[in-house]
Automatic annotation (TrEMBL):
Pfam families: Pkinase (PF00069)
Cross-referenced InterPro entries: Kinase-like_dom_sf, Prot_kinase_dom, Ser/Thr_kinase_AS, U-box_ubiquitin_ligases
Designated name of the protein: RING-type E3 ubiquitin transferase
Ranges that cross the membrane: none
SUPFAM superfamilies (alphabetical): Protein kinase-like (PK-like)
All residue ranges annotated as the Protein kinase domain in the record: 106-491
Recorded catalytic activity of this chain's protein: S-ubiquitinyl-[E2 ubiquitin-conjugating enzyme]-L-cysteine + [acceptor protein]-L-lysine = [E2 ubiquitin-conjugating enzyme]-L-cysteine + N(6)-ubiquitinyl-[acceptor protein]-L-lysine
One GO MF term attached to the UniProt entry: protein kinase activity
Amino-acid biosynthesis among keywords: no
Protein's organism: Digitaria exilis
Family annotation (Gene3D superfamilies): Phosphorylase Kinase, domain 1, Transferase(Phosphotransferase) domain 1
Keyword Oxidoreductase: no
Coiled coil region boundaries: 117-191
Length: 545
């Protein structure tokens, strides 16, 4: 083994006791061993001895010093010593002194060596302590290392297990996603196949619809030709009927004289087709429209002194109060007039704006239906029912509250639209108010008390009939010429105590004053202009879309 070269090791080998065995350890490995020396004579100085040995050495030195002093005192007289201690020394005494000094020096050297040995012993003890501490630290570190290795193995195992679980979860997630994607792909493929089939079916339907459209266009052309022919025949019939009417003719000068040259003081009102004036012709008070789209034509009506039904119901200034008997008769007359218009054999006329303001009352409170500016003429089907005619428009007209809601929504005008107006009365929710009152059995709360003591049974019949006429859909409304007429005629008979005038044809016959339609007189400045204006009159009264 190689001898250590460090200063501590060299100093320890130099000052350590000769018979001490010393082990030198580095990194937990023994690198060198110094064996003890058994022959103590080869050692000049005893080191690393215990305290008893050093005490013996000191005692021996003291004993030698005492012997030297005693010998010195015996050999040298006391007087000599006291008087001349130095000069009287003999050579033997000088040698003794030198020996004593030598012994003192040796003792000092031994003391110094003892101190160094003690220091080395202390260092050796400290090194042993440090070695023990180092060994304990090494042991502690080894235990920590083992513990850390155990923990590392445990955590490594946990990490491996966790990675394994994560990998398995990711694989399961990917497997599910793949399964979902496969299902979506299958569904998408199925939908695509269905879409392709639907597209092919739609293409076939399109071809079929185009064929049907072409066929319908051809049929429409044929129907349009038939319609034009029917309308032409209708126009000829209307022209013939109008030309055969016993209409009185007035010149422009007669109209000027009758209205005091169209004086503003005689102006009755402003209509949709011109200004209305009051005049006096042939000892008869009339009301006429001065202009109708063209200056050569004017219409002359019988003047209605009692104004409109709206004025009477609202108790306007100068308007008469209507009893319940008069109101029942007015309802019957209005039903008769609308039935006559709706049931014309060639074409049906729909008024389109039935309301109290357009129902005029003459001096005898006979109702006259006026304001045909919004009326329409409907062709009737030979196979359909009496009220089967209709007209479609994208711009419905009328007065809110009296206007057919189905006509507002669909733009389809039928005779049943007049039925709704026949049963309606402002305000807009009056039908709901009446229905609620009837359900409560309190109909008297909504009956106009100004009509007198109205029989509650008759009022209930009329209210029930009005509610049926104001149904939201036209299919649920009754027929004016059938069910409605039978009810109102019976109620009017009971109210007046006598039957009304005969059939509607007698009411509206040629040469008679009609109870339901205002009489009209054509006023022209000459016969030629009147003949040329017949078609214009028809368009005014029976305009088509």
């Amino acid at each position: 083994m190689k001898v250590p070269k460090s200063k501590t090791a060299m100093k320890l080998m130099e000052y350590a006791h000769p018979f001490c065995e010393i082990w030198f350890v580095c990194d937990q490995n023994m690198i060198f061993t110094r064996n003890p020396v058994e022959d103590l004579r080869s050692v000049s100085v005893f080191v690393d001895a215990d305290d008893d040995m050093w005490m013996n050495v000191e005692n021996s030195l003291d004993h030698v010093a005492q012997n030297v002093e005693e010998t010195y005192e015996q050999r040298v007289p006391a007087t000599f010593i006291e008087e001349e201690p130095h000069d009287a020394m003999v050579p033997s005494q000088a040698n003794a002194v030198r020996e004593v000094e030598l012994l003192h020096r040796q003792k000092q050297e031994v003391t110094v060596g003892t101190m160094e040995v003690a220091e080395l012993q202390e260092q050796s003890k400290q090194l042993v302590i440090e070695r023990d501490n180092a060994l304990r630290n090494v042991k502690f570190l080894e235990e920590q290392k083992k513990q850390m290795m155990t923990e590392w193995k445990f955590f490594t195992k946990e990490i491996v297990e966790l990675r394994k679980n994560i990998m398995m979860a990711e694989q399961e997630n990917l497997r599910r996603k793949i399964e979902v994607l496969r299902k979506e792909k299958h569904e998408t493929t199925t939908k695509l196949d269905h879409a392709v089939l639907e597209a092919m079916e739609a293409r076939r339907d399109k071809k079929s619809m185009m064929a049907k459209r072409d066929s319908a266009l051809l049929e429409t052309k044929g129907l349009r030709a038939q319609l034009e022919q029917v309308m032409s025949e209708r126009d000829e019939a209307v022209s013939r009927d109008i030309s055969e009417l016993p209409c009185s003719r007035f010149t422009r000068e007669e109209l000027r004289n009758a209205t005091l040259r169209f004086s503003d003081g005689l102006q009755v009102g402003q209509g949709g087709f011109g200004v209305v004036y009051k005049g006096f012709l042939w000892n008869t008070t009339v009301a006429g429209l001065s202009t109708l789209y063209f200056a050569a034509l004017a219409l002359v009506y019988e003047f209605m002194p009692n104004g409109s039904l709206e004025d009477c119901l609202e108790h306007a200034s100068g308007a008469p109060s209507l009893s319940w008997q008069a109101r029942t008769r007015i309802i019957t007359e209005l039903c008769s007039a609308l039935s006559f218009l709706h049931n014309n054999k060639t074409y049906a006329v729909v008024h389109g704006d039935v309301k109290p303001a357009n129902i005029l009352l003459d001096g005898n409170l006979v109702a006259k239906l006026s304001d045909f500016g919004g009326s329409r003429c409907l062709l009737r089907s030979d196979q359909g029912p009496q009220d089967s005619g209709m007209l479609c428009t994208s711009h419905p007209w009328g007065t809110l509250g009296y206007m057919d809601p189905e006509f507002q929504i669909t733009g389809v005008l039928t005779p049943r639209s007049d039925t709704y107006s026949f049963g309606a009365r402002s305000p807009l929710n009056i039908a709901r108010v009446v229905r609620d009152a009837m359900e409560r059995g309190d109909l008297r709360s909504v009956v106009d008390t100004s009509a007198g003591d109205w029989p509650i049974a008759q009022a209930r019949w009329l209210a029930h009939l009005a509610l049926r006429c104001t149904e939201m859909t036209s299919d649920k409304r009754p027929d004016l010429a059938g069910e409605v007429w039978s009810v109102v005629k019976r109620l009017a008979d009971e109210a007046n105590g006598e039957a009304l005038v005969g059939s509607s044809r007698q009411h509206f016959g040629i040469g008679q004053q009609q109870p339901g339609v205002s009489a009209q007189v054509l006023v022209c400045d000459d016969n030629d202009s009147c003949g040329r204006s017949i078609q214009e009159v028809r368009r005014i009264f029976h305009a088509n879309e």
